Structure formats: C-alpha cells, structure tokens
C-alpha cells in the first residue's frame, strides 16, 4: 500500500527506527522515524558557493510519523555533514545513537545522541523549534543533538 513520496537529494541510504516520543493522537508512545543519507544534489551545489564539502552537500534528514495525518513529516535536518554515504541508528544502555559515515569529515564517521523532548529555555534556537519570535521558553521536540 502506497503511503507517500518523500523527497530526497541523492539519497544513498535510509534507516528506520522507533523511539518513545510525543504523539499527535495522545500521550507519549512508540513513534516511527526515518533518516535519509542524502549524498549529492546539483540544486544544492548551484545555490551555494562551495567553499568546503559541508556547504555543497545536502543535509541528512530525519522524518517523524504523524499519527493524525498518517504521513511522515520533517523533524530535523543535520546540516553539518559532508557526502553522507550511510546511516544507522543503534541503541545502547538505554540511549539512541545515529551513526553517519562521512559525517563531519569526508573520511570519518560521526555519532549523534538522541535527546528526548522537553520544556527548555533557549535564547538562540527558538526558530528551529517553531517558537514565536522572541520566545525563549517552550517545548523542544526530541532530536539528534548536533550543537
């Protein structure tokens, strides 16, 4: 059964994972996610001046299932990756990790830790959380920590 088309930018790998997260249809519970390793995009290369590998490659994108719309929606974009060639999500000792080959450097893998959603004070990244302009306290959805 067809669910939806998900746009990618030269995706070469995808990983599926499920974590306990906020749900649109009620209390916290198991929620499916997809993460795409986008490798290359002519569109990105044309739009940016390529000073390094990071500025010329598309982000790794994490999609979360919405239980009301029955579709995946973008949850997070990891911009500081270069030519992601593979992604994998692993759990160890109760923590969830995303491993990206060719992550923060072309010849290395990068590991990101999943942070659960919570109310937080943040004076810098409110726009990422879809907060109102000037808002410094609110709900921050779960994501892979790339700060």
How would you explain this protein's 3D organization?
- The protein is mainly beta and 147 residues long.
- The protein has one helix at residues 42-47; strands spanning 11-23, 26-38, 60-66, 71-78, 86-92, 95-101, 109-115, 118-121, 137-140, 143-144.
- The strands form 3 sheets. It has a 4-stranded antiparallel sheet with strand order 1-2-3-4, with no helix packed on it. Strands 5-6-7-10 form a 4-stranded antiparallel sheet, with no helix packed on it.
- A hairpin with a 2-residue loop joins strand 1 (11-23) and strand 2 (26-38).
- The relative contact order is 0.17.
- The mean pLDDT is 85.
Sheet/helix structural class = mainly beta
Q: Distance N terminus to C terminus? A: 38 Å
Give the low-confidence spans: none
Oligomer: single chain
**Which outline best applies?**
globular
Characterize the largest beta sheet: strand count, sense, and whether it forms a barrel.
4 strands, antiparallel
H and E order? EEHEEEEEEEE
User: Helix fraction?
Assistant: under 10%
Beta percentage is over 45%
Walk across the major sheet and give the strand order: 1-2-3-4
Mean pLDDT: 85
User: How many extended strands?
Assistant: 10
Rg over CA atoms: 16 Å
Annotation field: number of helices: 1
